[in-house]
Amino acid sequence: MAQRYVRVQNQQGQVYYGLLQLSLKVQVLDAPPWLQGQPTDLILEPDNYEILAPCAPSKIVAVGKNYAEHAAEMESEVPGEPLLFLKPPSSVIASLSKILYPPQSKRVDYEGELALVIGDRAFDCTTEQAQTKIWGYTIANDVTARDLQRKDIQWTRAKGFDSFCPLGPWIVRELSPGARLQTFLNESTTPVQSATIDQMVFPPDFLVSYISKVMTLLPGDVVLTGTPMGVGPLKIGDRVRVEIEGIGRLENTVVAR
């Protein structure tokens, strides 16, 4: 199994980065791993920590309509270049945290996605340079108030509510280009979304290069790479989980705000 890098909080409220062991103990690092954090002698027992979102980004840069079939289901064409938008850091929550259904919306959708974690400052990069800036991979759910997205035209409100960026549960360094992304609702074993990540229109290294020509990406920042076909509504009480082969499972329950 690939090493799993986590961000945790102990019972005293201290936040650490660490390595999750098979025993579920966490070996604490002395810094974020993308800043050359090294293992320490501190080990957290499974009952003495809570898993947080695996990083605390200064920004989340997301990409719209990056799978052709999803663009079609949204009744639009694949963009000629990446369609970028931002989600605020305050939208980030951990796996098993609650997605808060806002009263302003009547239609909130799930969008399972692969997320890239940036490990080094990226500015005006080539695609070759951009690949070296991607430190690792995690799972995201780009939760969207679909009715507000259509109403507002621009997407800030629809994508920006607190809890609208579940992220985690951990980061892995390597991922197969053909890894499968699937989204499931409640107890169903039939996925509502299923695609391989190599079906993206614009691949990860191209996305990071493109974004770096617009804004500087900093260590710990997150890039959401787009969602495949099959987006759909969530109801209060629903449990949604996004799985990516080689990473794991991101799971959240929807509650009224």
Secondary-structure blueprint:
Layout: E1 4-10, E2 15-20, E3 26-29, E4 39-44, E5 49-51, E6 60-64, H1 68-73, E7 83-87, E8 92-93, E9 98-101, E10 108-110, E11 112-118, H2 127-133, E12 134-141, E13 144-145, H3 146-152, H4 156-160, E14 165-172, E15 180-185, E16 193-196, H5 204-212, E17 222-224, E18 232-234, E19 239-244, E20 248-256
Helix pairs in contact: 2-5
Question: Could you please describe the fold and organization of this structure?
Answer:
It contains 5 helices and 20 strands. It is mostly beta strands and about 260 residues long. The protein has 2 domains: about 5-50; about 60-255, Alpha-Beta Complex (Fumarylacetoacetate hydrolase, domain 2), CATH 3.90.850.10. The strands form 4 sheets. A 7-stranded mixed sheet has the order 7-6-17-11-12-14-8. A 5-stranded antiparallel sheet has the order 4-3-2-1-5, with no helix packed on it. A 5-stranded mixed sheet has the order 9-20-19-15-16, with no helix packed on it. About 45% of the residues are buried.
Task: List the main descriptive attributes of the protein structure presented here.
single chain; 257 residues; mainly beta; Fumarylacetoacetate hydrolase, domain 2; five-stranded antiparallel beta sheet; 39% strand; globular
